[in-house]
Prior knowledge:
The structure is a single chain. By secondary structure, this protein is an alpha+beta fold. The protein is built from 13 helices and 17 strands.
Amino acid sequence: MVLRFLDAGESHGRCLLGIIEGFPQGVELNQEKIDYQLQRRQGGFGRGSRMKIEQDHLEILAGIIEGKSIGSPIGLLIKNKDWENNDPKNMNELTIPRPGHADLAGLIKYNLDNYRPILERASARNTAMRVAIGAIAQQLLEYFSIYSFSHVISIGNISVKNAILQKIKKENSVDSLTELKDKINKSAVFCVDDETSQGMVQKIKQAAEEGNSLGGQFEIIVRNVPIGLGSHVFWDRRIDSRIAGALMSIPSVKAVEIGEGIKSSKNKGSIAHDAIYFQKNKQNSNYYRKKNWAGGIEGGITNGENIVVRVYLKPIPTLLQPLPSVDIKTKKEIRADYQRSDICVVPAASAVGEAVVNWELATVFIEKFGNDSLREIENNFNNYLKRIQEC
Length: 391
């Protein structure tokens, strides 16, 4: 059985629902860790007024007994507190689509005269359930010492210096990772550098005063990933394909880069590829690289190095100073609708992106090592590590 999930729910509906199928029996799940990731998704300077209303909390309705998974589908629920304020039945029709949103394309696709049904599901509100699902996957990965973190690289034209980015990639101990994550999460914009964080906050304030919005970049790094996850055999089994596709499904994401994909395209092969070396008793595999331009993935398969992914977000399309649009009823040019929105979601999106990557890694991890029970996976995993150390 494969690991998969389904989710349901609308932005202004009663709740968000999730079902996880194929999760192994015997995994202890910490509720506080899941809610902490939900809080991260709600955080970050530049978020809108709805984040003051919602206090996201995951309710686990099925599949868990005494804190451990029992192998059956896991049922999940996150209530929308905003439902009490905005019953969809009492909301006005929306006929002036916003440039950059799914509004116009969606209402034409479904032959609607109002884009509210499109807004409700296209909204980034649904990412709350994806974060909860990813946080569950993260706890499975961490049991096998696979750790991830995300951090903001840039907002607008304010960016972290490359020297700082390279430094954090080289810190691989668990202690250094804990310290790094603490520093990131204390930042108003989830940025590792204090000076850059301040510049990003000022940039967001400036955009707010202008009635504008800002995009940016964040990076996800996953450490201690074993060699051999994913597959070269079919296009949809390649782990880089799965990660990139999943990240592109996050609202506002417009590009995904694995490792130094952009820099590689500008260099010769002798520079762009990571030379292979051998040293007995290295962690994960005796084979290793001195640099990691591939971002931990070659040919759709993890190669034992850290997975490094960069994600690029466009500015939020809903603007306080709306762009020109057309009323679909009168066909007259008019300024687009304004819906309550954020100024910048890059920090929050970094939490979503980390959850999404953890989910995709958990799916290929289970494909390789089984999913009946944690004990079975652990057995298979330990035997596999022993074998690759002998290669």
